[in-house]
Amino acid sequence: MIEINLVPDVKQELIKAQRVRSTVISFSIIIAVGAGIIVTLLAIYVFGVQTVRGVVADGAITDGGKKLASVEDLSKTLTIQNQLTKISSLHADKKIDSRIFDVLVAIIPASPNQVQISNLAIDSDLGTISVEGQAARSYAALEVFRKTIEGAQVQFTNDQGDQSVTLASDVSTGETSYGEDASGAKVLRFTMSFKYAPELFAPASKNLRIVISTKGNATDSYLGVPTSIFVDRAKDLEGGQ
User: Fold this and answer.
1) Beta bridge partners of residue 27, listed in sequence order
2) Is 57 within the bounds of a domain?
């Protein structure tokens, strides 16, 4: 059988273009419908599911608030729990102030230069120790006390091994005055302060002990003489003037 194409080429191109247009329109409609469905589902989730979840969460918060409100002394309980969480860090950073008694045992001179302490204050912010007391042997005993403090060493052990540092620096004697003790005996009242080594009260300092050293001279005559009376020899003026 013989077929004869009676449709011109232009007509065929037009029909082909119409088919392509119909296909594109169909796909566009399908995509638009799909996008509409997706937008609708998102809207349902946002305005429906999320709203429901929000209502449920608000209800749970309200119920939890009522339960907490019914707890007796809630504020005290929360305060205690908050403090408990900080105990470990506070314990690691706290100073061992009780070591001051070991210091006093070591630095108070033996009789007859013994002194008595009436008041002692530790300023951890400034790193100083202030002492108020009285000495029976007047200025000699006070000078022995001062030199004993200046010669004291703190020996301890830490992560680096055995260590030794000077106990005090900037030792200064404040006001002094004569008075009478409870028995009526004449005594010298005094105040003294010094900066202490940070290692003294540090928790990291283990096996700590106070060692007294007077730089090789421990005689009563040396300890009882104020160092302020000794100075270097004055230099001669040039030209003998």
Assistant:
1) none
2) yes
